[in-house]
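Renewal narrative, Specific Aim 1. Our central claim is that a sequence can be written position by position from structural information alone. The example that follows is taken directly from our test logs and has not been curated for this report. It begins with the structure tokens describing the chain, in the order in which they were read.
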């Protein structure tokens, strides 16, 4: 039985999947299986997987209908036999020591339930993209209790992760109803119970090519609203169990303020004000929330311009 089950998610990225498979073949850590999960590709990806199954040692699963990212990952979780689960999207790339470093880290510290890595953004030609092309830099976090950081915003790229199968047994699988933030939802649930490790250095290449799911701003905002509402609904429970009460209270106040801004952008002034008031009650000295609450008195266009 392999120690690591790699879930290779595939959907219409024939131009890039060869690089993803080459990165797998170059891993210095070899005790892994690869489960290739195709979610209805129509660009030749399925045929490519079949032609290269023996070369790369692939187990292939073709979805009979389109399940979306998280339904597809859940099918992979059902098939996985490893102690650890790794995710690799077919348009991303791993560098050779990625798995070796993560497995060594998690063997050294059993409190770590999930480890992610450093890396950089690349374009369609595998050229490095500097800065924050998606509005944030490539994540760089400490190792330890990251729950508070993850309440603030998602700081983990899916293709950089390795997590214990035991985490899934405790938290449950991905929520398939999400479009693009189901990984954030999963990382939050894991981080609430386990530590998160960070492997420094260049190990994961995240490709930006114009068709990434995260570029659909409308659907991503809907997902983000759902997750922030889920967090807010559990605020009392989260505070009660938090070892760092001031830190988590500040993160929850920020979370409520983010909800207020999202509702304000949608023109739902009543819910925006309620969310800002909840933010202020959690953290009365958070002056940004007062300013944004006041901004709800302005016309919608002006509110949006200021937020």
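The sequence written for that structure reads:
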């Amino acid at each position: 039985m392999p120690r690591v089950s790699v879930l290779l998610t595939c959907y219409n990225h024939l131009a890039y999947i060869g690089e993803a498979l080459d990165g797998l073949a170059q891993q210095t850590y070899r005790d892994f299986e690869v489960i290739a999960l195709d979610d209805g590709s129509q660009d030749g990806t399925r045929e490519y997987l079949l032609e290269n199954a023996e070369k790369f040692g692939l187990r292939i699963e073709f979805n009979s209908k389109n399940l979306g990212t998280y339904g597809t990952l859940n099918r992979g979780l059902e098939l996985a036999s490893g102690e650890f689960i790794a995710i690799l999207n077919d348009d991303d790339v791993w560098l050779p020591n990625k798995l070796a470093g993560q497995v060594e880290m998690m063997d050294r510290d059993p409190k770590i339930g999930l480890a992610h890595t450093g890396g950089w953004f690349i374009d369609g030609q595998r050229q490095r993209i500097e800065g924050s092309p998606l509005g944030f830099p490539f994540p760089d976090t400490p190792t330890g209790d990251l729950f508070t950081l993850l309440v603030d915003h998602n700081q983990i790229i899916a293709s950089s992760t390795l997590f214990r199968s035991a985490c899934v047994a405790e938290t449950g699988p991905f929520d398939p109803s999400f479009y693009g933030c189901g990984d954030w939802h999963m990382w939050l649930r894991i981080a609430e119970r386990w530590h998160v490790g960070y492997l420094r250095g260049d190990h994961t290449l995240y490709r930006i090519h114009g068709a990434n799911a995260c570029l659909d701003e409308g659907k991503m905002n809907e997902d983000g609203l759902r997750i922030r509402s889920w967090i807010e609904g559990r605020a009392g429970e989260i505070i009660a169990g938090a070892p760092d009460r001031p830190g988590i209270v500040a993160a929850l106040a920020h979370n409520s303020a983010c909800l207020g801004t999202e509702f304000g952008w949608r023109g739902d002034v009543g819910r925006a004000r309620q969310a800002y008031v909840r933010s202020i009650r959690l953290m009365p000295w958070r002056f940004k929330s007062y300013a944004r609450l006041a901004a709800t008195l302005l016309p919608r266009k002006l509110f949006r311009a200021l937020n």
